[in-house]
Amino acid sequence: MADSAAAVRGLHEEVTHDAVIPAPAGGLRVLVVDARRMFAEALSRFLAEGQGVEWVGAAANVERAHAMCLAHRPHVVLMAASLPGNDGITGTRELRREFRDTRVLIVSELATRDLIGRALEAGASGVVLATNAPDDLLGLLKRAAAGEIVLPEAEVAAVVRRLDEGRSERRTSVHMLSRLTARETDVLEKLTAGCGTAEVARDLHVSPLTVRSHVKSILAKLGVHSKLEAVTYALRNGLVDTPQPD
How many CB atoms lie within 10 A of CB 67? Predict the structure, then answer.
């Protein structure tokens, strides 16, 4: 059974290749959603100066963010966890429902395990701390745009362990998992163990292209949109054991 460190590596290293957003020549488009005007403006000014980043504006609420997403199609939205009249989690769910190619990162003063779990379930690409250094934030934005899950390192292992919760729909889920072929099940087990595409290909003696093809089929059969969701599904429904801490 893979340890939690392997699972962490898999979440951070792997990119869902069929969901990668190619950045245009103008740079990575970023929208800030935060009701704190001074914070939003300061962050926006920094992003506007960032190399390879195109700041498209700041929105004070989800309604305005929706309109700006329609107008500018940002690659990444930096969404405050707390917003007037709505919360960042609900806002994330609404934006991801309509703008599937836009990644959302929740920005919070504290990245609690409950917040991380709710953010990921809503479709966010992760949670970043408001205390992150600006230069670090640029790297996190690029990782999110590339399809990676971005979380505070100290919380990743705990989040992986929590994926084993909520088995109330096990009967239906077992049926969904039974639709996978033997080889697709092998691939999913490898992904859950924290393996990347190249490692899965080597272990199963197939090409990386074949692995990616299997992953696309797995996502379609399970009705999920990313490898993280597929891994979560497998862990929650007992396909494999949840990684445990060392």
Answer: 11
pTM exceeding the 0.70 threshold for the entire prediction: no
- pLDDT per residue over 13-26, tens digit each? 333 333 333 444 45
Which segments of the chain are extended strands (E)? 28-33, 53-59, 76-80, 82-83, 86-87, 103-108, 126-129
CATH architecture of residue range(s) 21-146 = 3-Layer(aba) Sandwich (3.40)
Per-residue pLDDT tens digits for 58-87: 888 999 999 999 999 999 999 999 887 778
The DSSP output letter for 180 is S
Instruction: Give the strands of the sheet with 103-108, arranged side by side.
Output: 53-59, 28-33, 76-80, 103-108, 126-129
Burial classification of residue 131, based on how many CB atoms lie within 10 Å of its CB (0-12 exposed, 13-18 middle, 19 or more buried): exposed
Write the CATH number of the domain with boundaries 170-236. Answer: 1.10.10.10
